[in-house]
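Entry 14. Ran structure prediction on the chain below.
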Amino acid sequence: MAKCREALAENNRDSEAYIGAAYAHKKLGEHEAAITIIKQGINRCAPSVGLYQWNIKLLAECNRTEEAIADAREAMLAFPSDVLLKLKEALLLPILYDTTDEIGYYRRRFTACLQRITTTISLDTPEARRSALSAIGNHTNVFLGYQGQNDRNLQMQYGQLVHRVMEANYPQWAKRLHMPAAPTNGLLRVGYVSSRFRNLSATKYFLGWLRQHAPERFVVYAYHVGRKQDAVTEEVRRVSRFFRQLSSSLEETCQAIRNDELHLLVFLDVGMDPVTTQLAALRLAPVQCAAWDHPITSGLPTIDYFISSVLAEPEEAQDQYSETLILLPGVGVCYQKPIIPTVLLNKTRRDFGIRENAIVYLCCQYAFKYLPDQDSIFAEIAKQVRNSQFVFLTENAAVASSLSRRLDRAFSAMGLSAGEHCVLLPAVDRFTYWNLYLIGDVFLDTIGWSGGVSTFEAIASRVPVVTLPGRFMRGRQSYAILTQLGVTDTISHNKQEYVEIAVRLGLDRAWRDDVIRRMTRGFASLYSDKTCVRALEYFFERAVHEGVPGATISCAGRSPS
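Output, structure tokens:
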């Protein structure tokens, strides 16, 4: 931080100095200070698109959505040809909604603005094509799915836009490929692409696929398109026949994947990171699939299949996807049981500001998963479990303030004090997150977009999980996990039953202990289940040899003959 201040003092007209100082404040969690510095830079420096983009980014992260949109509109006056500014002005969504009506407003705005963008974007000149490429390389629609609606049409509209931009810049990699001849050794070449081949959700979900593939039938290629690496990256390298670190350029990545002449390619985290979406919008293999690190249709015309779970998908799920839906048995992943290092987790309730004698309900999902119509649930539980406390995690102080304001309204409507029952913590590291499992009593799953990794970890930590399956796969992962585990009595059918189960788990210690015992007995059914891998391999072989079908394929219970 001192170096950043020195840089600003030496040249207070240098936009990069302001960006560096703002970045340092952001890393320290000081978002408001970062915004102040960026605005100073905008006022003092020559017009800088970088300063404007950072201003919009920081405002959006602090849930100051309308201000971010207004500033993006102002920036467009200074830089009218910058496509990223146009995307941000058009498609920004709140991190946290204040009311249900607000969701409707922003969805209508998003729909209209996306239509405007897709019909007015220019790709006629090299400069226009480069600007559009840079824009989609710095934008995702990651927050759209948290509105709890069927996003198929909107995702397809945005997917067509991304495909057009990528095709205009890289026509040589946009055309459908012929299937390579069957190899003489019989091995199919299967590739996996991720920007998150680290200790993150994509690898936690899908490393079991790579690890358990039959080496006598498949050659596994892993393409890590993120810059950071850790010990889990090395595990991906170890279990893959070929591991490629490809984070230097888009062109290098495309050419490297094409050179390997794959039969089939799986993108693990489309929608999570712009670079993965860019790559998935091209044709780098004859058959291309998406997996569900971001459990929502990609909308891309270049993705043939979406690989999902027969337990997690509702009936008529195909209507929610632009891809052909593949249903693997069970939860669809070979998820290794997490090792929770309990001896290293020695923080107490007091360290978190939690009462020693409270019934602790863990609500430790990303804040943007919580929609306004869920707030009353916590107050309903608190009304019946008087000594309850609900633990939330928030991304920054501004988001915490927005969530706190909502909780105050919900608890006050019940004649209760949110301050007495709700503990809002800042984002924590992985070990501290695990520590919360050890001091919590019940894990309350988010409604509409359920836990995935967090649910696997809560169960491994022997914390009961209350869930309410939603309309879409993204709200049914915990349901699938508990179903495969064989403990279904904490699965509710409506909000009233959700409250009843949560209350009983809080007040009936004997029942809670019984649920935990049955959860523990079910570990062998849930973790490291290879059934889905055999079904996945069956699908791979069928897709390569038979081409792309047009209807949902259930691979549940199937294995290669």
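Residues 41 and 479 are 49 Å apart (CA to CA). Will compare against last week's run tomorrow.
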